[in-house]
Amino acid sequence: METPMEALERTATILSSSINGLFTDLEKIADAVTAVANAAPEAPRRSEFLFLKQELADFIKLNSDLINGAGIAYATGSLPETPHWLEWWRGQPKGGPRFVTHDLNPDSLSYYDYTTREWFTLPASTGQPVAVGPYVDLGGINVNIITLCVPAPTPQGTHVLGCDLTLAKLERVFLRALQLREPAVILLGPNGRVITSNNARIATGTLLLEEDAQRVAASLDVSAGHPSRLPWKLISLHDKARIGS
């Protein structure tokens, strides 16, 4: 019979493989962005990056079982036409992805300043890919998401490409991989927030309770080979009755 730790190890392998596959595909697109910028004799205009619409559409369609959108956020002042520019596309049940409009006017009450968001600042400042969240996507669809983001360094600054995973889609992958009802197992983000679990009491998006933190029986990094870009842990809990005996 499989032990709980063996179930955690199997689940970590499946999650890591799935998410790192997304990172790999995003990095290929980011490399193309960097190549275009490096080849341009001067700061490239938005028209030089029109190929991204199809690249991102293909990426979203190929990975629709995990993600619901993807896009690029340009470094401040990198485009001649505008100081800021964000292109994000949302997958649709039918047809191609839909462009998501963001208010980029600093004087507007609904201004979306992506340059202050962690999903932009972390890869732009560190030059490393990272998974950010879970958090509520107030600038898009107002649901709990995780954003995978990778840097695209250019002479004009570092652009950031990313994709959004809704927690509902990630939860399905987690439960299929885990195949356990007991013990309670939690996929935990670096901010102590529950990404998902196999226990209805431990709700997605909530902070791990102190009483649960004291019941941790086993802990495992989801991606030991890439802990900085995928800083998630799988933890299993002791049964309450066992703790009290």
What can you see in these coordinates?
By secondary structure, the protein is an alpha+beta fold. The protein has a domain at 14-168: 2-Layer Sandwich (Beta-Lactamase), CATH 3.30.450.20. It contains 6 helices and 10 strands. It has helices at 4-39, 51-62, 118-126, 167-178, 210-213, 240-244, and strands at 69-73, 86-90, 98-100, 130-136, 144-154, 157-166, 185-188, 194-197, 216-221, 233-237. Strands 3-2-1-6-5-4 form a 6-stranded antiparallel β-sheet. A 4-stranded antiparallel β-sheet has the order 8-7-10-9. A hairpin with a 7-residue loop joins strand 2 and strand 3 (98-100). The longest helix is centred in the N-terminal third of the chain and has 36 residues, at 4-39. Mean pLDDT is 88; it is low at 241-245.
Topology:
Blueprint lengths: L3 H36 L11 H12 L6 E5 L12 E5 L7 E3 L17 H9 L3 E7 L7 E11 L2 E10 H12 L6 E4 L5 E4 L12 H4 L2 E6 L11 E5 L2 H5 L1
Antiparallel strand pairs: 1-2, 1-6, 2-3, 4-5, 5-6, 7-8, 7-10, 9-10
Helix pairs in contact: 1-2, 1-4
Calculate Rg over CA atoms. 20 Å
Shape: elongated
How many helical elements? 6
How many strands appear in the DSSP assignment? 10
Helix content: 25-40%
Low-confidence stretches: 241-245
Compute the separation of the termini in Å: 25 Å
